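How a chain folds remains the central question behind the approach discussed here. In the encoding step, the backbone of a single protein was reduced to a row of integers, each denoting a local shape. We regard such an encoding as a compact summary of how the chain folds. The sequence in question and its structure tokens are set out directly beneath this paragraph:

___
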Amino acid sequence: MNTAKQVNIMIGLLLVAFLAFATYFVTEPAREQAARETQDATMAERGATLFVNNCRPCHGLEGQGPDDGGIAPKLHNVAFLVLDAKNPFNLPKTVDGEAKGIHDFLFDTISCGRTNAAMPPWAQSHGGSLANIQIEYIVSMITQGRWDLVKEIGDEHDKLALDAEAAAFSMYGKSYAAPVAADAVTADQKKAVGKAIAYKDPKAKKFADLPAADRKTVLENYKKTIYADPTGVTITSKNCGQYGAAAQDFRDRNPFGAPAAAGGGAASSDPVKLGQTAAQANGCAACHSVTGGAGVGPTWKGLAGSKVDLADGSSVTADDAYLKESIENPNAKIVKGFAAGIMPQEIAKQLKPGDIDNIIAYIKSLK
């Protein structure tokens, strides 16, 4: 092979390599997005299964809390929704600070439980039964709003149990908690519902075959067996719960609220409103209540201008300089009764220009 042919082959190979690299470079963002979506879907599905198996008795099958037979707060809530750049609502992506605040609020509450509440610690590090990655799955499901998966998985889990309840109702006129002959139990039925129910009797009906009124009765009977009884829940102060009254403030978040003024006008120029928006966007409400209630951090209600007792035994007036320093350097002056290092040390770097002054204006408005 002569030199000219060798050169042409080398040029051709280089051209092919260049085209392959260019194609890979152009399509890489799409592959990354697809991989991220696949990972999110997997995490949400695993979180849905864990929710059905662990959280449903208190929060309800679809996270509706008291509206769905549960005794715990509603989790099927837009306040916990984190939107990505390609969300189906065509809304702005949830800013990183706000997304982190939502994640930490949910993760810490599941991990540590809630002091003086029925919510126990679930993290293995706090004596619970879930690994951190399992809690991440649940948080991912909630922040993605994948309650459709919870319903789908829960319904599948319920099918055999509801059929067993329906069989008992059609045969005996009472729930499957009533004893029946031991030889009437199949291994699968016993494993699935933990009760003795026969399908052998030709009179036995499945849930879907019952009249509407009977289905309602059977469903209510079944709910009594899977949802927590408030009288039987032990309230504890020994868990590591947090967030106090700040939890309710945090639940008021609404990513669907229009940032612009009513009627489509320009966004507000009021520093107080801008400060409130910045505080919500950066997850401040997850730790600081605005109602005077206890939280991970000091309440903002009545804070401005007040005397603040510090952990070192000294005190300081909460003037503008103190508030600004507390945002820019959270560990500079630790308030008595609170721990150092809880507030993100880099919070000031994620704020936009003017946010600190606006947040201070907002704090000063909370009399």
